[in-house]
Write a structure and sequence with these properties.
481 residues; disordered C terminus; mainly alpha; disordered N terminus; 3% strand; globular; 21 helices; Proton glutamate symport protein
Length: 481
Amino acid sequence: MAVIDAPAESQRRKGPFYTELYFQVLLAIFTGGLIGAFFPLWDTVAVLDPATGQPMMDPTTLHPLTRQVAIEEHGWVREYLKPLGDLFIKVVKMIIAPVVFLTITIGIAGMRDLGKLGRVVFKAFAYFLTFSTLALVVGLIVANVFQPGAGMNIDPATLDPSAVERVHGYEQQSHDMTVLGFISDIVPTTFVGAFTGGSILPVLFLAVVFGISLASVGERGQQALDVLTSFSTAIFKMVAILMRAAPIGAFGAFAFIIADQGVDAIVDLAKLIGAVWLTSLLFVLVILGAVGWWAGFNIFNLIRYLKEELFLVLGTSSSESALPALMEKMERAGCARPVVGLVVPTGYSFNLDGTNIYMTLAALFIAQATNTPLGLNDQIILLLVAMLSSKGAAGVTGAGFITLAATLAVFPSIPIAGMAIILGVDRFLSECRALTNFIGNAVATIVVSRWEGALDRDRLKAAMKGKPMPLAAAPIEQDTD
């Protein structure tokens, strides 16, 4: 029975708080935010008259979100700080494919009963469908109750043409998101191509097939399995080394986000931002908290256990940046390796609670802001369309906005040009989506593990107390529930 040899967090010597990764990432986010706020990327030179295109003497007569402005770019933030965040994301993406491939292959190859593979997949997708739909419904309810876009009275024809043009660019990208195209993209053209395409699902497909093949040949595949296990140990050590650069990446990424979007954008759309963040927070604490209680853990303890990864997601505005660390921590928390390997990567495409909350809430916000009436039947159709278009959105920054464009593109009642209203604050909403998606996938992994009888309760309790056990003693398969 193969094991992973990795140092336990509980065995590391605790140093001063400022040596902890979570504190360094938090400090980097705070510092980057200050720099971005005081040194904005864009500076408004003049507000233009929509009729003449000339500078206005009194621009206060225009709604802030319908203004067309002449701007000047201060490029040093883009030139020197943005590459720090981009480089860190590239480093993480470099390691995601081997982590996913090795985790899934070793896990499946070590299964005694391959029928368990089908059960895990079925239970995972049952969970994904249930809670993804629930998140969409929650977004609709909040938008109807609080109506964050009511009273804005925005005419889509008066929106900034440059912003509308960017929205149409997102709409064009959304046209490629067909069901058949999505299924076709899962199967890689070549073995190596699965690792170079930048998508998780082809790697997942290849790993499942290869893992089943190794399991089918029995003892003849043991030598290959041992080599992969040793390679996995080195890869996870590499992840630990690369994560030490997380504060630098978070600093550069967050500085650019604030400098590019601006603090004024937050003020103009405070009701929408507040509604999305508050709804997501309540979804995590109440709904996922109740699920956690049933599964035997406290949601606050889980958040504390994942604090380093959550700060990293916040700083980079992408849940993908913490995917390798999440897989390792879920194993430390007592989830069986095959379950972790299957649930986490697929959850990044199919279990997007934060994205789903955002989609229906933002769609109704645009309808309210543009005075577009939507009856109950319209909202039911919107819900059904969103259920389809939300599947397969990647865990990368901006995918939620593209998915929203895909939804509105086939739902003509809401003007898609109205997406320009929220374009300026989408990065702030992206952070909320990423955090909620990340926590949702952690909860899903524990729940499916418990449901499958593959959850080590002792390890889970130790991890929730902040004292995770070493993985060196953790077998690939656990069945202690």
